[in-house]
Amino acid sequence: MSRKTIKLITGSIAMFLLTLTLSACGSKPAQYDSKSDLGSQVNYTITGIDAGAGIMASTQKALKEYPNLANNNWQLQTSSSAAMTSTLDKAIKYKQPIVVTGWQPHWMFKKFPIKFLKDPKNAYGKSEELDTIARKGLNKDNPGAYKLLKNFKWNASMMSDVMLAVNNGEKPEKAAKDFIKKNPDQTKKWLDGVPNGNGKAIKLTYVAWDSEIASTNVVSELLKMKGYKPTIQALEMQPMWASIATGAADASTAAWLPTTAGLYYKQYKDKVEIVQTSLKGARTGLAVPKYMKNINSIEDLKK
Ligand code: PBE
To answer: How far is the CA of 139 from the centre of ligand 1 (A)?
Structure first.
């Protein structure tokens, strides 16, 4: 091979690599620019989660109720919690603009520098609570397990402990066990007055959101400690509510109320019992990275 040919080949390889790099950069959306309109920077798109989630219904409501969203044809993209948080992760890495459906308690607020947007029209309700629901008659058929469900209350920081452990790769069951071991005083309160189950079965259903994976596994481990035989089953939100309403399952810690699961509660309220509020001060809404400094309210989502 002549020198000239080699030069030519190396030259074309270099050109090729350059084009490749340039096109890769080109496909990466630009960093957030506070001086230009946000809508076109994010394609007028809110990154959502699974279609059945209550936060998706609230967001559809927001898309209609806020003229700035409705008039500019903002849209909600369906995905999953996992896909949403990974898209958010990437956007933050490159300081890109993004608007997501966000909620608390959730590790996303610990892991990412994000903020809720103000919701002056209350599309997401004021404050949510996490309720434990049971089928009618559970208190009579299984008063011991019912008592434990009645005792089960905790707070966002406790729940986050379990959620973060799971997010770091721990098996939910193990994360729940570890949490119980680390919190003997709390555990004593949870088990207070709960009689031995002597192998009595109890069926818990939940939706596989991080928060409910945490609460369901903690309750299940507590029940086991008292000699009950809990089974846990993950379902979509509609079948989860239906399972309790029809008595196919006994209880669930996955009811976000009054707004998030409001439609299901309305549909089933004569057939389910709210046993206890396990956590107060939960919240759902739209969230953006903190570097989007000029975006602080849903009303700031304009063109
Ligand atoms: N979430 C988490 C659920 C409830 C728990 C906010 C994603 C929802 O939107 O229905």
So the answer is: 27
Q: 276: Cβ below 6 Å to ligand 1?
A: no
Residue with tokens 């309700």: 125
70 in any annotated domain:
yes
CATH number, domain with residue 74: 3.40.190.100
> Do 298 and 201 share a structural domain?
no
Quick one: pLDDT band at residue 52, thresholds 50, 70, 90?
A: confident
Instruction: Tell me if 4 is assigned to some domain.
Output: no
Q: Are 265 and 133 in contact (CB under 8 A)?
A: no
| pTM for the predicted model, two decimal places | 0.85
Vertex 183 angle, CA 177 and 184, to 5°:
100
55 lines ligand 1 (CB under 6 A): yes
pLDDT in tens, 31-43: 999 999 999 999 9
Q: Examine the pLDDT at 2 and tell me if it is beyond 70.
A: no
206 Cβ inside 6 Å of ligand 1:
no
Task: Give the helix/strand (H/E) hosting 92.
Answer: helix 81-93
Residues 156 and 107 in one domain: no
Would you state the structure tokens that stand for residue 40, as one six-digit string?
Answer: 């076109």
Let me know whether 289 and 277 are in one domain: no
Q: How many domains does the chain divide into? A: 2
67-86 average pLDDT score = 95
- What number of other Cβ atoms are within 10 A of residue 300's Cβ? 14
**Full residue range of the structural domain in which residue 275 is found:** 130-281
- Pair (65, 203) in one structural domain: no
Q: What is the pLDDT of residues 120-159, one digit of tens each?
A: 999 999 889 999 999 999 999 999 999 999 999 999 999 9
**DSSP tally for the chain: helices H, then strands E:** 14, 9
